[in-house]
């Protein structure tokens, strides 16, 4: 059994009395105060998450952008320098290896941030294809710590710390910055639907910034609040809405599959693929739709299952995302969720449960 890994902020979490739990091989903070308090902080002011368990790869050189673009289903080549692109990473048969964000730091330097549980699997895939391109690939996951500062007061707080780069630093921008805490990579991205930033830096830099953020009243938040926040805005989570068995077209990610691109791994297969599933956002007036619960149509026939479910802090209702068989997707949009012995009527949502507030 492999030893549980710790982020550079592990001791800080213990001192704050965080409830810790294993996640993707790391001992991670699940919550500090309460999920409600932490979620409200992100929606109304600012919260900070230690996400140092995430993986960081760098592709550098003349064909770095071309290389990354070939591996992503989304269009990375057309992104301007200083922008970030969200994309699935697919096999030749269209199935999803992972979802990630690639940051075009310069014309010949790309940072790729991947999910913690998939670092080795993803890096092997990148390594396999790198020799075809004139670029250098490195896995620097051990070198970086990473904070996610999220919430409407994020900009104000970064300005106070003299870290905010400039007013043209818009949503899904990314930049290498020199700061009072040393060199950082700053990205205006996030996983909560709110305005916010990912701050990549050395373990020492991030430890100092973490302390400074708490001094300014930023609320430390754990993985439990992070899951509620991402589900409220309908963001997928690898291992739940995304998996090795499904394609992006099965998981509501058609917008990330750019068939107008010259080429990418999986293009040929996905160009003729007919999706087997469709995602549905569902809520209950009473009760919580938990992962694995059966989803039924109005006649009581099973049509799918819940992939993620929780109690929404913002709406006060049980919310969930369901994977529904496309051929059985009810035209009347009437669903039931089987909660233990009960078949409860579910509300179908065409939009996210919460609008979020990213700029």
Question: How would you characterize this protein structure?
Answer:
This protein has 359 residues and is of the alpha+beta class. The chain has three domains: 10-52 and 144-232, Gyrase A, domain 2; 53-132 and 245-273, Aminomethyltransferase beta-barrel domains (Alpha-Beta Plaits); 276-359, Beta Barrel (Elongation Factor Tu (Ef-tu), domain 3), CATH 2.40.30. Helices cover 20% and strands 33% of the residues. It is built from eight helices and 19 strands. The protein has helices at residues 10-15, 35-44, 64-71, 119-129, 154-160, 203-215, 223-232, 267-272, and strands at 19-23, 26-31, 47-50, 55-60, 84-90, 96-106, 109-114, 136-139, 145-150, 174-179, 182-187, 196-201, 219-221, 277-284, 294-297, 302-311, 318-325, 335-339, 342-349. It has a six-stranded mixed β-sheet, sandwiched between helices. The longest helix is centred in the middle third of the chain and has 13 residues, at 203-215. The termini are far apart. The model has no long low-confidence stretch (mean pLDDT 97).
């Amino acid at each position: 059994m492999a030893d549980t890994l710790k982020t550079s902020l592990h001791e800080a979490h213990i001192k704050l009395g965080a409830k810790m739990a294993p996640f993707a091989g790391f001992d991670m903070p699940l919550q500090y105060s309460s999920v409600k308090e932490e979620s409200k902080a992100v929606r109304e002011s600012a919260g900070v998450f230690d996400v140092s368990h995430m993986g960081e790869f760098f592709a550098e050189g003349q064909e770095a952008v071309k290389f990354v673009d070939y591996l992503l289903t989304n269009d990375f080549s057309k992104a301007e320098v200083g922008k970030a692109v969200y994309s699935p990473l697919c096999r030749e048969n269209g199935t999803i290896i992972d979802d990630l964000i690639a940051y075009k730091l310069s014309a010949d330097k790309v940072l790729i941030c991947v999910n913690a549980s998939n670092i080795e699997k993803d890096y092997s895939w990148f390594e396999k294809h790198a020799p075809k391109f004139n670029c250098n690939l490195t896995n620097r996951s051990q070198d970086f710590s990473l904070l996610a500062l999220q919430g409407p007061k994020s900009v104000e707080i970064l300005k106070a710390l003299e870290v905010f780069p400039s007013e043209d630093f818009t949503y899904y921008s990314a930049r290498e910055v020199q700061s009072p805490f040393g060199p950082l990579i700053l990205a205006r991205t996030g996983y909560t639907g709110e305005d916010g930033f990912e701050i990549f830096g050395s373990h020492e830099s991030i430890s100092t910034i973490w302390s400074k953020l708490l001094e300014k009243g930023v609320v430390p938040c754990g993985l439990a609040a992070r899951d509620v926040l991402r589900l409220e805005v309908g963001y997928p989570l690898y291992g739940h809405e995304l998996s090795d068995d499904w394609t992006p077209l099965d998981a509501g990610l058609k917008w990330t599959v750019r068939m107008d691109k010259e080429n990418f791994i999986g293009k040929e297969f996905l160009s003729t693929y007919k999706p087997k599933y469709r995602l549905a956002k569902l809520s209950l007036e009473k009760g919580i739709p938990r992962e694995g619960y059966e989803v039924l149509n109005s006649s009581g026939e099973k049509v799918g299952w819940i992939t993620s479910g929780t109690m929404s802090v913002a709406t006060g209702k049980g919310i969930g995302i369901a994977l529904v068989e496309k051929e059985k997707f009810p035209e009347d949009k009437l669903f039931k969720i089987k909660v233990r012995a009960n078949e409860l009527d579910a509300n179908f949502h065409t939009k996210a449960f919460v609008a979020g507030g990213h700029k």
